[in-house]
Design brief:
Family: Belongs to the binding-protein-dependent transport system permease family.
Domain ABC transmembrane type-1: 65-245
Radius of gyration: 22 Å
Number of helices: 11
CATH architecture: Orthogonal Bundle
Shape: globular
Order of helices and strands: HHHHHHHHHHH
Strand content: under 5%
Keywords: Cell membrane, Membrane, Transmembrane, Transmembrane helix, Transport
Number of domains: 1
InterPro entries: MetI-like, MetI-like_sf
Largest sheet: none
CATH topology: MetI-like fold
Main location: membrane
């Protein structure tokens, strides 16, 4: 216990301080090189210019960020709601898995940028097509991760459960799902970041608000610093959502193998 407490400051330094210093060095280097080589602002603005222009429209940036975040969270919630039962169906029977996997691959092989305009025609020019595109981008890796976790249970544990006359439901809740927790949260981390990508792709095609819409309109009027500000906001959104998934796993499942491996290094 004492040794674990001693490791926490070093782990905090490794996970927070070092990345922060690396980002700071990158920003300073970016600023210096842009000013030294006198790069035009419409090609590559300096970080100070990006911050200044973004601050001027901070309220508007906040409105666009909230709109994109709403689409991201709705798409992620839909992907979780559909992926979990689909993964259970895939792992319940090889025949069902063989029937569903080709359909999953088919949906993943369709370019979402090409699909987005069709969804606007089918579903209307509202938020629903954006949520569906976000869902389509995120749910495939989530299904694969959950399915892999459910199938990765050692046969010895399954045999032990059957020897104890555990029902299918008991086997799922007490053996398969707990063992699959690291896989499930790995899928969550990938899916939540892909949701940010999917939301922006959808906003490029159909939106009157959102960070993707802000990037399109800013570049159309050569407001490149503002477009860079929106891109940075998207990056921060992805990082924060990813870290929230990490924190949720550590809080709910501290025994998770993924968290233990991360803390051990």
């Amino acid at each position: 216990m004492v040794e674990a407490k001693r490791r926490r400051p070093s782990a905090l330094k490794r996970e927070v301080a070092i990345p922060a210093i690396a980002v700071l060095v990158l920003v300073v280097l970016w600023e210096v090189l842009v000013r030294a080589f006198k790069v035009p602002e419409f090609l590559l603005p300096a970080p100070s210019v990006i911050a200044e222009e973004s601050w001027k429209v901070a309220g508007n940036m906040g409105v666009h960020s909230v709109a994109t975040l709403r689409t991201v969270l709705l798409g992620f919630a839909l992907s979780v709601a559909i992926s979990l039962p689909m993964a259970l169906a895939i792992t319940s029977s090889p025949a069902v898995g063989n029937a569903i996997y080709p359909l999953l691959v088919l949906t993943q092989s369709i370019p979402k940028v090409a699909l987005a305009p069709l969804l606007v025609v089918i579903l209307g020019a509202n938020e629903l097509p954006r949520v569906v595109v976000t869902f389509l981008v995120a749910f495939f890796p989530l299904v694969i991760s959950i399915s892999t976790g459910l199938l990765a249970v050692p046969p010895e544990l399954l045999e032990l459960g059957r020897a104890c006359k555990a029902s299918w439901r008991q086997e799922l809740v007490r053996i398969r799902l707990p063992y699959a927790v690291p896989f499930i949260f790995s899928g969550f981390k990938v899916a939540i970041t892909l949701c940010v990508v999917g939301a922006v792709v959808a906003e490029f095609v159909n939106a009157d608000v959102g960070l993707g819409y802000l990037i399109v309109t800013s570049t159309a009027f050569f407001k490149v610093p503002l477009a860079f500000g929106a891109v940075i906001m998207l990056s921060l959104m992805g990082i924060v959502l990813f870290q929230l998934a990490v924190m949720l796993e550590r809080w709910l499942f501290p025994w998770s193998a993924a968290g233990n491996v991360r803390d051990a290094h």
